[in-house]
Amino acid sequence: MRPSHTLVYLAFLTFLTSSALAQQPQESVSVGPWEIATTYKADKFDNCTMTRTFEGVGISFVRTKDGLSLLLDSQKWSLERGKVYSVRLAAGSQSVEAKALAETKGVTVTLADRPFNEKLRVASLLEVRGEGATIRVPLDKSAAALARLDLCFEKNGLAGPETNPFVAPNRKP
After folding, report:
1. Number of other residues whose CB lies within 10 A of the CB of residue 72
2. Is the pTM of this model over 0.90?
3. Residue 100, CB-side half-sphere exposure with 13 Å CA sphere
4. Which site from 53, 64, 93, 155 is most exposed, i.e. has the minimal number of CB atoms within 10 Å?
5. pLDDT over 60 at 35, yes or no
6. Cα-flanking dihedrals φ and ψ of residue 8, to 5°?
7. How far apart are CA 56 and CA 60, in angstroms?
């Protein structure tokens, strides 16, 4: 190898190594059609997500310290950011009224009703009924995926005096 090629190779190798060290890998696990992953902000655990896409709609369940939320997004939507839409969520024979907070291409719905959230684990379909249409979210394998989402949050959300500040946390979904 010529000296100029060696320098280019070493520079490239240094770039790869420094990039790999600077990024915190976000590991994920698949459960049926769902992808469960952890999210960190500023090297601190933020949440666990359970995502999939169905018929052009991005579907995410997000577990934070504040509870469970549903995020729906589509490139086809044009929403008024900050607007609140009334929706009716239905899973099996149970339904609840909720509010959907809009971004430009999606909405966030806080899932605050615990009995309804438990119904999501056994239902085969979640319907989100808005004024203009009903979005049908298939919940196949959701019982196992929601259990894994809860486990992800329990494993990563516990940071206290028992954690070793000198060892990187185990960041697995």
Report:
1. 20
2. no
3. 23
4. 93
5. yes
6. -65, -45
7. 13
The angle formed by the CA atoms of residues 95, 51 and 156, to the nearest 5 degrees, is: 100
**What's the pLDDT tens digit per position in 90-106?**
999 999 999 999 999 99
In 33-74, DSSP assigns E strands to 34-41, 44-54, 57-64, 67-73
Q: Return d(Cα 47, Cα 96) in angstroms, integer.
A: 24
What is the bridge-based pairing of β-strands 84-91 and 125-129? antiparallel
pLDDT at 160 over 50: no
Burial environment of residue 56 by CB neighbours within 10 A (0 to 12, 13 to 18, 19 or more):
exposed
Inter-residue contact 109 to 99 (CB < 8 Å)? yes
Instruction: Say what the pLDDT of residue 41 is.
Output: 87
